Every structure is written in C-alpha cells, then in structure tokens.
Amino acid sequence: MQQEKLRASDFVGGFGKWEMLSFGVGFLLVITTVFLFAAFVSYLFTGEADYSLLESTADPLNMKMQYKNVCGSWGAIAAFFFLNDLFGLASFIMLPFFVILGLRMMRIFKFTLVRKFICFSFLTIWMSVFLAAFGYLFPFFEGSFVKLGGNHGIHVVKGLTQVLGTPGLLAVLVITAVMFLIYLSAKTVEVIRGMFRMRMFGELRRKVMEKMRKEEEEEEDDEENENEEEVEEPMDERDEEDEKGGENVVIFEGEELKGEEEEKEGEERTATVSPHREQEEEKKEEEKKEEDKKEVARMDVEVKKTEKGTGEIERGGIETPYDPKLDLEHYKYPTLGLLRKSADEGNPQIDMIEQNANKNRIIEVLKTFGVEIKSIKATIGPTITLYEIVPAEGTRISKIRNLEDDIALSLAAEGIRIIAPIPGKGTIGIEVPNKKKCIVSMESIINSRVYQESKMELPCAVGKTISNEVFMFDLAKAPHLLVAGATGQGKSVGLNAIVTSLLYKKHPSELKIVMVDPKKVEFSIYAPIENHFLARLEEEEDCIITDVQKVVKTLNSLCVLMDTRYDLLKKANVRNIKEYNEKFKNRQLNPEHGHEYMPYIVVIVDEFGDLIMTAGKEVELPICRIAQLARAVGIHMIIATQRPQASIISGAIKTNFPTRIAFKVASMMDSRVILDRSGANQLIGKGDMLYLQGGEPVRVQCAFVDTPEVNDICHFIATQQSFLHPMYLPEVADADGGEGGGMGTVDKGHLDPMFADVAKFVVNNQSGSTSMIQRNYSIGYNRAGKIMDQLEKMGVVGPQVGAKPREVLIKDPMTLESLLNTL
User: Fold this and answer.
1) What are phi and psi of 241, to 5 degrees?
2) pTM of the entire structure?
C-alpha cells in the first residue's frame, strides 16, 4: 500500500501535501475574489433596495429576505460590509491583491508579496480617506446607499478635521501621496524638482542666464590679451601612495627609499570663452542626433537566419534584449553591513623601530658574507614586509639566495623567503613576517574600488598582496583552481572568501554552484540559498553533496550537461558561453529549438583527497574531463585538499588545473607537488598563501570571513525572491555492472544498440578507447563508457591500463562475427 501511495504521489507531479494545500487555498481565494467583485458591482445597481433590508433587520441571513444582489444574500452582506462599514469604493482596490496572492499560492506566477501588500494596503486606506474627504467637501452623495469612503474614511476625516481643520486634512492627503510616490520610484523627487524649477523659477532663471552670458562676452575682449601671456600652472603633485590606495613604503636613513612620485601635467587655467561656443554646442547636438538616428536605423535592419537549424530568430525592428535578471527582478544583492570591519582595516601601522632593526640586520648579514648593496627599500603589507635591495655591480644573485637561512637566523623569524630577482624589477626581494600582523577583513575587500568596478565574469577576491593592494582573479579565465595546504592553515576560509566574492557580485540567474563536502560540515552553512545559487540532481534531497556515490553521479551529470551545452554552441555557431549568452540576450536564438540562457556553473570539491582514497578513478576521470573541456561552456572547478601528495594530486590533475593556491605545508616536497617549486613550506600560516597562474607565484594574505558573517549573508539571500527549486542537473543512467561489480557477463538483452557497430570498428582498427567511440559516433561520454564496459565484459577488449588505448583481444573480423551471432 505504501508503494501505491508513493506512485500516486508521483502521478500528481511529486507535490507534497503542503504544496497541494497551498494550491487549494490559492484557488479558493481566486474564486472568492471573483465572487466579491460580482457582488460589489451588483451592489452598485441593486444596493438601494438591499441597503434598506440590511438596515431594517437583525437577521440578514433570514431566508425570507429577498435580496436583489446577483450573488444572493451572502453577496449583499459582503458588499454592504466592505462598501459601507469598511473602506467604501476603495474596497475594489483590495481585490487585485487577493488575486495576486491566490496565484502566488498556486505557484502559477512568481510575485514578491511584501511590496505589493504595502502598495495595495496604502492605496486602499488613502483612497478611502480621499473619497470620504471628497464627500465631506462636496456633499453630493449625502444620503446615498453607498458611502464613498466607508465608515473608516468618514471617522478618519472627522478626526483630522477636528484636529487640523480642512487645510490640514488636504495637506495630510498630499504629503502621504507624495511619500507613497517616492516609495514607488526615486524619480518622483526629480519630477517634483523639475516642476518647481520650470513653473516657479523658469523665467527668473532665464533672465539671470542671459545677464551672465552678456557679462562673459563683455569680459572676453578685456581678458584676451592677458590669457595669451598666462603661464600654465602645474597641479599639485600626488604621492604614489594615494594613487595606489594604501601602499606603505618606508625610506631608511639618507637613502630615501623610494616613495615614488608621479608628476601630472599642469592644466591650463584660463577663463577664455569662445565667441562661437553656442554655435559649436548646437552643431555637436545636431551631430549627436544624426548618430542616434543612424543607430536606430542600424538596429531596425532585419536579422535573418544565417544557417539552417541554428535556431536563430528572424526579427525586424527594434527588439528589447532579453535580461535573465528579470526572472528575479526584485532580488537584492547582499549589503556591506553583513560583513564586519577589522580594527585596522588591513592597513598596518609602520613600526619604524622594527623596520630599522630588520634593515640593519639584513645589511649586516650581507656584509658579513661579502655582499655589498646600493640601496634598500621596505614595503609593508598586512603580515609581511618586503625588503627590496639593489646589489652592487658584480654580485652574484645565487650568492644572496644561498643566504636565506642565515638571514632567518639573524632576524629570528620564520617564513623568510628570498625572491631573486623580483620579476619585472632589477631588485632582489626578502620577505620578512611582521611581529604585529593585521587581519584583512572581507569587508575591506568587497568595499574596495577594485572589486566594485571589476568587469570580470567570475571575480574571486581572495585578499591583499604585500603592497596592500586588493588581489583578485577571474575564475572564468583561470579556468580551474587547485587549493591545497596543511590542516588549519586557512584553506576553508579561502574557499569561503571565494564564494562570498561571487555571491556579492553575481545574480542567481547568472551563477550556479555545485558543492561537494565529504566532511559534511564545511558547506552546510550554504544550504539556505539552495533555491538561489545551488544546483543538484533532481532526485536528491540535499544540495550539499556528501555521499561518495552521489558525487560520482553528479560529476557524470555535469559531463552530460557539458556535452549538451556544446551541442547548443554548435547549433548557435559560437565558440564559448559568453558569445552564446550575448546572442541569446539579443534574441537571435530561438528557445523553441532548445536554446536557453546558460548560467556559469562553479563546482567546488572539498577534501578531494578523501574522494580519491574512496572512489579513485571514478572521481578523477570525470573531473579531468570537465577540466579539459568545460571551460568554453562555463563550467569551472575548484578542488581543495589537505593532502598535497603525489598520489592525490596526480599529473593529470596538475595538468588540467593550471591555477593553484598553496597555503602553508609541512615540507618542501609537498610544496613541489602543489606549485612545482618550493615556497609554500616557508609561509607563516593563518591565511598566508601563494597564488600561481603561470610565471612566479604571488604572496597574498587571505581575507578573513568568519562563519557568522557567511551565515548572515546566506540568511539575507534566503529572504530574497528566489526560484521555486534549485537548478536541476541532467539525469544520468546507471552503467550496467561497474568497476566494482566484478567481471561477470553482460545481460545480452540490454546491450547498447550500437554495440555491434562499435565492436566492428574497434576490431578493424585494433584500437579502442572511450574518447574514440565518443568522437566517431557522436555520442555522450557516459554512453561511450557504457559501451566500452560491455566490450570488455564480452571479451572484445582488455581492461583499462593507465591512459593508453585498450588492448583489442579479438584479432580478426571472422571471430567477432561468430561472437555477434551468438548474441
């Protein structure tokens, strides 16, 4: 019986009992509203007779009462109650809100109810008072069976008139109406200003402008000769520190370490007024109008289909571009108030005693080993100070690099790192940890000008560099990220910083996130935003994937989605997701042909090492395939591990994840596994990290975003307008058997229809691989892999050995034919 109930639930679309209840209540509300509307309208024509009956009886539901309302006694009573006892004719305003509420409960349309409730409530109350005031000032309807503003409006008008008089009553109505209009749109303020300027001060302003113009023309001739002799006045110079917004450069002793200053060319300050200025401005306006006309004409040209089957829309005239954000038009981005400011805001205070002491020790150690320097400069960061030295001519760089341990011993500090030379500069850098370290708050990163004005597709703001500049990168160009480091060194905080920077910048229609969390506790905090930003398989209950088998299925589903998106790109004749979405926004792709707007998808896999230990190739193969191909279709991966070992971060992973972040690790060997070089073993921990994307790694202090901050952000987003459910990933058919299912025979009745053709192809070529099948038969990766498993179990090919093509066990077509005949 329980199974039958479940099937019945599936038959009705998988609705829960609460959803069905909501639908029923919403439907009842819509029908009731229609009933009320009919009763109200009928009352306007039959109310005089019904009014006398209702006023004269104590039992309005008496069956002997003959009401003329088209909706009977209930309709007459309801109309009398609303149109007389409550808000009068203003009661009609409530009915559209009841319809909207009903449709929202039925989930036919998506509405934000709070704003509409405020608007309809205010309009109902205000119109009730306005109509009552109208009836009070112009008693044309006195004695009528309909009270214009109802008893509510009459009582409010009497109260306001008694306290403020008639002028005060009118003032209250005008003020509240203006405040409501301002609430609806901020443009109301500009409209009111324009009305005052045009009507009250227009003539006065015109006379003043004419007088000023005449004075300027009179002064022009007197100043013309003086202007020719004027000398250009240079503007005040500005330090580079102000230009960069926070770089702290310290100059030691008489060496004047190098607060570089930029000189700006002076601006000519003349008061010359061109005698033909007005004519020139008019000419420019005419040229601008001509350009606008040409642009409209260009947009009006008919765009025809470029190739059969592309699904492009043939359109004529100006058409409004598609905006994916309109699906959630009332969604509000998280505010800066959800993030906490640190005491120092990431700008360290310069301790000259410490800086001079470190400088003297560095110079002393270098001199001890016979290394002379020309100058030294210190750049102070949140946790690290970079000392840049210029060695004397003839000094070997390798000689300074070999003194790393001696300098660390002299300074009695851990985390000393020598950069010899600094890329792009003729200096050698020595990184020394500060005694007093500053916290880089996420608020200072999100509030920075660099982040706010960023045009990146997937901006990931992770912290600040040694020069106190905000460091961010575009994940869309990365295109995949490997994060590794020892336990407790800031890896989880770094992932939260990346997610936070994406949530602050992207709209839910533009970004979806797939989260894999084997530890079950790292990403659970993001569960409230599942309908906004997360994606999962439709049959799964939780958006945060924790089970290993579900991880494998999800990764395979992403491979299917990747193939589907590539098919759409092919139909649209574009090369990447950016070109595709641009074409879709311009309505050049027809949704009836399968086209749809593609949001970016970021896959975040925490504890990748644990997945490799438990699932091995089942996880690694789809991850590598996504990393190899998915960039063009907007799918990007971030994998993190606290086990930077060669058995976890294999050569295939490193090849496909060119962008890497390394937090502090225990040994040089672990650093080489992550970055292919040493350096991560010399970090000081607590968010100190190296970012590598080709070239030399950049040292960054990771921004700190605490769990309560992430929790506040997620709960803020959860209160915003959302989709009805998370993004559903495509379904994946389970492969027959599997690697863990043994080497038994395949069910001959469930062989793939292409099995025979593929078997002949493999035997004729004496070579076989999943990618070869996929490429030659234009099928998905999962189906190709399933056919390859069947070929192996039927004895056509051997088992997988590394990345090499499989060995073909059947050497001639005749043997294969005999095998196929037995099937």
Assistant:
1) -65, -40
2) 0.56
